[in-house]
């Protein structure tokens, strides 16, 4: 009589795992690690589940879009993507970083739809004018962190920020613009001292202040916990 051998667990065929049955919380954690552009252009097109998660306003509380890093050559295209991300946030946006392409129009669009914004980081955005910047800052009373890189900041800008952002705790300016011959310049430091007394963290990179400017900051910003004045 022929014997029938039992099929053990090791030899049984394992059924493929259905990743769509993964809990939403875990899926959100995974998709949340993608860049803003990846979520807009790729992940949201994969399936209905991913599209639903990528449209959740909670996924858009933080937006970080870098023109060069994200491979978007046309300014109009990356501006369109940024506006789409802001729309998806449904007013819940609290943190946005934009590199290389922000304009007055885009900044205006962001501010009007993001009254909860607490952190703004702009760098190499040459198309933002003084009037556009001043108008935007006056609408961001909840701002706690502000960072500029490779953008000219005037004394008047500092005054507008200080007058309209009473909750500002962190201010970073990466200038890295050197003059030849060397010119000492304390006006910006004095403006910070006179208009930002609540700062906890201050970073001024590449600015040619003197000891007088430094003393003004130390006296005018008594709550400072960290100060970086490199270069």
UniProtKB/TrEMBL annotation:
Transmembrane regions: none
SMART domains hit by this protein: FBOX
Pfam families for this protein: F-box-like (PF12937), LRR_6 (PF13516)
SUPFAM superfamilies reported for this sequence: RNI-like
InterPro entries the record matches: F-box_dom, Leu-rich_rpt, LRR_dom_sf
Domain of life, source organism: Eukaryota
F-box domain span: 16-63
CDD domains in the cross-refs: F-box_AtSKIP19-like (cd22164)
Organism: Lactuca sativa (Garden lettuce)
GO molecular function, one term: SCF ubiquitin ligase complex binding
Listed name of the protein: F-box domain-containing protein
């Amino acid at each position: 009589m022929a014997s029938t051998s039992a099929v053990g667990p090791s030899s049984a065929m394992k059924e493929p795992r259905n990743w769509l049955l993964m809990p939403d919380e875990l899926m959100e954690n995974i998709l949340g690690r993608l860049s803003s552009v990846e979520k807009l252009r790729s992940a949201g097109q994969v399936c209905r589940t991913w599209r639903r998660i990528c449209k959740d306003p909670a996924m858009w509380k933080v937006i970080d879009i870098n023109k060069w890093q994200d491979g978007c050559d046309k300014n109009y295209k990356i501006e369109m993507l940024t506006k789409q991300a802001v729309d998806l946030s449904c007013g819940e946006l609290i943190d946005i970083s934009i590199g290389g392409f922000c304009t007055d129009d885009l900044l205006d669009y962001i501010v009007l739809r993001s009254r909860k914004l607490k952190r703004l980081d702009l760098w190499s955005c040459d198309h933002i004018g003084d009037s556009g910047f001043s108008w935007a800052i006056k609408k961001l009373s909840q701002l706690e962190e502000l960072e500029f890189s490779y953008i000219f900041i005037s004394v008047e800008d500092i005054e507008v920020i200080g007058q309209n952002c009473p909750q500002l705790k962190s201010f970073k300016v990466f200038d890295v613009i050197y003059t030849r011959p060397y010119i000492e310049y304390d006006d910006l430091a004095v403006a910070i001292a006179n208009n930002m007394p609540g700062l906890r963290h201050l970073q001024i990179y590449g600015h040619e202040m003197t000891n007088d400017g430094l003393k003004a900051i130390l006296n005018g910003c008594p709550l400072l916990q960290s100060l970086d004045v490199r270069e």
